[in-house]
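A reminder from the course coordinator: this example appears on the midterm review sheet, so study it carefully.

Given structure:
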């Protein structure tokens, strides 16, 4: 889990007066319960609803496996490597043909922070590994280590659930979770001995940074395993885009901008490029203002395009609710994204729509 440094600041705008509703305005905007969108897509593509249904099933298995690994590694001995490898393999296979699966990395788990964070980090890391062209063995190892990267965190729930920023002493204490996680890898009896030592190094190095400013050993540059860099930046993006008790979430575009700005200091160019290649400049579930002045939500990244995703328009220029409609910006070149819309702006302009989106971001089994 990415431990956010004290200087991190939430991306929330100052409060502004909410507009008065007009008689013509619909009563409410109701996002689908799984952060999804209408099924209509232009062209001969697989219908969105079908892609989303498949994605939900795969994410459910990934999340269940993440929770099981966190629980089972509390025991003296367990067999989890093959189970994790199978689920990660299925996830990687699905990502090849179903970009909607990436939407699910926006979820938070109400029953505990770690399962959702673990599943989301794994999903993002696997997508990055594919984007970088990793061969099958490396991708398998990346998936396992991503899912195992925070198994040492279970003993620090009072710290990662803290209502306030951690003090330096508390941060130093929680940083020990990396070494605790490495020790727990020895409890996984079916972890292939041929990769165990490298897996330990990767898990230990997820929070190391190029400039030596990470933990636990302050190593730098080429001493950090490349797979640890992939997991580290996925972990950082996931943490930034989810709220914590003491701070608001960064908007996805602001999180991407933050990580681009620290390229070369914290993460290498390959890791940053892979993250952007997967998520683009406007990642899934970004709120954006279009050149038409309408407000939309990114519902699918178009591969190969950094700024022209598939979006769902749900508010007009005055932030009043409209009947949702989808628009593929690749197919409508005269319409473009003008800017990202911070969630705080939506809260100020249309609190009801903001509340519904926030509620829909929590994972619920139906």
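Designed residues:
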């Amino acid at each position: 889990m990415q431990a956010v440094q004290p200087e991190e600041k939430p991306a929330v705008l100052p409060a502004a007066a909410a507009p008065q509703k007009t008689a013509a305005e619909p009563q409410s905007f109701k996002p689908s319960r799984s952060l999804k969108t209408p099924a209509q897509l232009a062209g001969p593509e697989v219908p969105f609803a079908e892609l989303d249904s498949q994605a939900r099933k795969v994410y459910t298995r990934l999340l269940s496996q993440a929770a099981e690994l966190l629980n089972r590694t509390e025991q003296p001995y367990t067999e989890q490597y093959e189970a994790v490898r199978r689920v990660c393999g299925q996830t990687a296979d699905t990502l090849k043909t179903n970009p909607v699966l990436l939407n699910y990395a926006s979820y938070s788990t109400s029953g505990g922070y770690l399962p959702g964070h673990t599943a989301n980090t794994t999903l993002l890391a696997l997508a990055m590994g594919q984007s970088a062209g990793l061969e099958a063995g490396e991708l398998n190892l990346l998936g396992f280590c991503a899912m195992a990267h925070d198994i040492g965190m279970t003993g620090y729930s009072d710290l990662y659930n803290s209502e306030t920023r951690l003090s330096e002493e508390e941060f130093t204490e929680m940083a020990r979770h990396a070494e605790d996680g490495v020790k727990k890898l020895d409890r996984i009896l079916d972890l292939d001995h041929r990769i165990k030592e490298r897996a330990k190094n990767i898990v230990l190095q997820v929070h190391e940074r190029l400039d030596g400013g990470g933990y636990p050993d302050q190593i730098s540059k080429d001493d950090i395993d490349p797979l640890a860099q992939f997991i580290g930046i996925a972990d950082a993006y996931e943490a930034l885009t989810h709220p914590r008790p003491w701070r608001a979430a960064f908007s996805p575009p602001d999180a991407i901008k933050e990580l681009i700005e620290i390229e070369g200091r914290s993460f290498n160019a390959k890791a940053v490029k892979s993250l952007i290649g997967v998520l683009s400049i406007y990642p899934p579930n970004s709120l954006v203002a279009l050149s038409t002045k309408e407000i939309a939500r990114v519902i699918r990244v178009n591969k190969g395009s950094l700024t022209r995703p598939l979006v769902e328009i749900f508010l007009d220029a005055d932030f009043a609710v409209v009947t949702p409609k989808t628009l593929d910006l690749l197919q409508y070149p005269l319409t473009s994204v003008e800017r990202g819309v911070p969630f705080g702006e939506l809260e100020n302009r249309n609190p009801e729509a903001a509340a519904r989106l926030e509620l829909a971001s929590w994972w619920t089994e139906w």
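The CA atoms of residues 28 and 321 lie 7 Å apart. Confidence is low (pLDDT under 50) at residues 3-43.
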